[in-house]
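**User:** I keep going back and forth on a fold encoding question. It is easy to fool oneself when nobody else works the same problem. Could you pick a protein and write out its sequence and tokenised fold? Could you put it straight underneath, so I can go through it closely?

**Assistant:**
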Amino acid sequence: MNAILITIQKIEGMSHKGKTVRDDALAADSILEFEMIKMEAVHMYEVIYMKAEYEPWWLFEGWEETIQQRIACQTIGEAQSALLELVGGFRKKYESETLKDQCFYAFWTKEERVFCEACDEDLQIFHGVFMTKNGEPLKFS
């Protein structure tokens, strides 16, 4: 079940379908007539899969552009399950793995590289997986 945050703005004096809402009692009765003013799902936890030329714990400026997948979760349990599922899949696919700060998993193979023209060398590609809580990296326990 998704957690829902509903923001209701004061609607007195606003118009809807050509009618002006003049008082709070009418506004309360009119709420059902109004489409939801603002409603958005709140996802406290996310599991992030990123693919970059650096390990995931660096989180260099613009790292969000390397995100390959975001999994939104309502609970820590859901996030841990999603993380473990991704990690299990990567363990089968990639020969090398490391875990840093009980938070960031990195996976790679020696063969997966990309040429960097600016530095004139091949750079290792890393597949990073980690959880966040309210947008901040979260240690896995």
Summary: The first strand starts at residue 4 and ends at 6.
